[in-house]
Amino acid sequence: MNQMGRDREAYNLARNYLLELRVRGLDSQLLEKYLHFSERAPRPASIALIYRRLLESAQNANMKAGVIGGAIGGVDKLGSLLCDFQPAAVLDKYHNEWNRILDDIVEKLRPRGKIRRTERGLWPKYCRTILSGARFLAQFSTVDDFYGWVDVFDNDDRVRTALPLLLSREISGFGLALSCDFLKELGYANFAKPDVHLCDIFIGLALCPEDSDDYEVLKAVVRVARNCGVKPYNVDKLFWLIGSGNFYGDPQIGESGRIGNHKKMFIAFARRKLRSLEA
């Protein structure tokens, strides 16, 4: 089986696997809603909304969502401190002093849990992201200015993957995966987040080499999408749903929208199927 054939079979196996779980309410129509959401959802209409989206993506790693957003009742609560998410105003208010942001968060939002102020603590890291994200977005005069800049990369296959690498350098705490998450959640369906679920499944099914880093997994997702005639966001979401089991917008599915992690079972199932096709 050549690479295109393997990519298409893996994608179809993933799609059929979810539908054949026989979870009540989980059908092809609902699945399509998730796979195409990024293409259909309206883009944030202001720099402030883009900044808020950036801060939401910044907590989408490891334990951050629970430690950050969960501790204060959601990222939206930061708006009262961050000048309604106006990047230039945040810089005027805090300059380069991330510790002042953390002081204000502790005093005014009273986050639950212990606040570790060490260099590697999640809150200090997040506050650095708040400042560097504001500094990055403050250079754009309008929302159209920002989208026009992103479009320069997105419209050229040869340089598209350079954009998340650039963002990972500009914004503290933003690695490649979070940069891709930020872009795809803005509606750029040509990007996918190479998170732990995608990495495990793609390596497990030999869709990329065993020693692949996030960048190589991202390129493999883009290749699978191209070979299947869909957007990278579509591939991302399909395999992510298998790994997370989280149908977050549909609480009637499973247990409050959760059907459990099927990653290991799917990898074992798909390996057997792919081996049989190669025999």
Describe the structure.
With about 280 residues, this protein is an all-alpha fold. About 60% of the residues lie in helices and about 0% in strands. The chain folds into two domains: about 130 residues, no CATH class; about 130 residues. It has 16 helices and no strands.
In short:
This protein has 279 residues and is an all-alpha fold.
Task: List its salient traits.
single chain, 279 residues, 61% helix, 0% strand, globular
Q: Report the radius of gyration as a whole number of Å.
A: 20 Å
Please summarize the sheet with the most strands.
Answer: none
Percentage of helical residues? 55-70%
Return residue spans where pLDDT drops below 50 for at least 5 consecutive residues.
none
Number of helices: 16
Query: What is the strand content?
Result: under 5%
Specify the structural class: mainly alpha
Layout: helices, strands, pairs:
Elements: H1 3-19, H2 28-35, H3 37-40, H4 47-58, H5 64-67, H6 69-72, H7 87-94, H8 98-109, H9 122-137, H10 143-154, H11 162-170, H12 176-185, H13 196-204, H14 214-228, H15 232-244, H16 263-278
Helix pairs in contact: 1-14, 1-15, 1-16, 4-9, 4-12, 7-9, 8-9, 11-12, 13-14, 13-16, 14-15
